[in-house]
Design goal:
By secondary structure, this protein is α/β, with parallel strands linked by helices. The chain has two domains: 32 residues, no CATH class; 222 residues, Alpha-Beta Complex (2-enoyl-CoA Hydratase, Chain A, domain 1). The chain is 35% helix and 18% strand. The protein has nine helices and ten strands.
Length: 283
């Protein structure tokens, strides 16, 4: 028998204890509990202990929201460029394009939810923090114009840290541009629904994200021009702990409804039915 007998601990000097597969567990930012990744995925990437809504990739969002096989991307060839030759920007764009298989942080297309047609736009925070550059703004506006042309409701999922600093004024111009696009929807009488996810802040929230006919939000999402820390510094007073969250904006009348992820698809389907037929299931 080896030295130490039955009760000795095996030596780990060979580093064998470091061979645990990556991605097996996830630590929740909300409650710090460790969750088996597969269990988290089965629960729609919502923490089963505290209800924290983890961010979703484009593919995951589409899988949970639209009818299977119904999504048809539009403007897929529109890709981000480097208009100001900003240092390292081209490298970061290529990195995130490879990582996400997206040409920019917003993907748009036609789809159906329970057979009801819509024009859909989804922002993925994994691409440059969901920041709004000239291409993201252009794709949002083109989606809005497609909604007007085809008389289909427009639904946009937002997730952004704001304007993309690497594009300077080109990025800031998208606030006015997307706001004008929302105005076109309004004048044409085409329904416009925004779903705010974590986080939706700064220039995106100050433009098209806050202009929907109906504004939904996922629970606990950071929603506002700036977060709690910046708000406390600027206001000079102690703000509520839930300042600039979905729930705070709901209490202040800036969000129409806070909707859990498992209920989002059904909620959107009822809204689309209401817009299409003028009736809605009260259940």
């Amino acid at each position: 028998m080896a030295r130490g007998g039955w009760f000795s601990r095996p030596s780990r000097s060979d580093g064998s204890h470091m061979n645990m597969p990556e991605g097996l567990w996830t630590k929740c930012p909300g409650c710090s509990e460790i969750t088996f990744a597969r269990d988290l995925e089965r629960n729609l990437n919502v923490c089963p202990k505290c209800g924290y809504h983890h961010r979703l990739s484009l593919s995951a969002r589409l899988a949970l929201t639209v009818d299977e096989g119904s999504f048809e991307e539009i403007d897929s060839g529109v890709a981000s460029q480097d208009p100001l030759s900003f240092p390292d920007y081209s490298t970061k764009l290529k990195r995130d394009m490879a990582k996400t298989s997206m040409n920019d942080g917003v993907t748009t297309g036609r789809a159906t939810i329970e057979g009801l047609p819509l024009i859909l736009g989804v922002a993925d925070f994994g691409f440059m923090g969901g920041s709004m550059g000239s291409v993201a703004g252009e794709k949002v506006v083109r989606a809005m114009e497609t909604g007007v042309k085809e008389n289909k409701p427009v639904v946009l999922f937002t997730a952004s840290g704001g304007a993309r600093m690497q594009e300077g004024l080109f990025s800031l111009m998208q606030m006015a541009k997307t706001s004008a696009g929302a105005s076109k929807l309004d004048r044409a009488g085409v329904p416009y629904v925004v779903v705010l996810t974590h986080p939706t802040t700064a220039g995106v929230y100050a433009s098209y994200a806050s202009l929907g006919d109906i504004i939904l939000a996922e629970p606990g999402a950071t929603v506002g021009f700036a977060g709690l820390r910046v708000g406390n510094q600027n206001m000079g007073v102690k703000l509520p702990d839930d300042f600039q969250t979905s729930e705070f904006q709901f209490r202040c009348g800036m969000v129409d409804l806070v909707v859990a992820r498992k209920e989002m698809r059904a909620t959107l389907a009822r809204l689309l039915a209401f817009f299409g037929e003028g009736t809605v299931d009260a259940q």
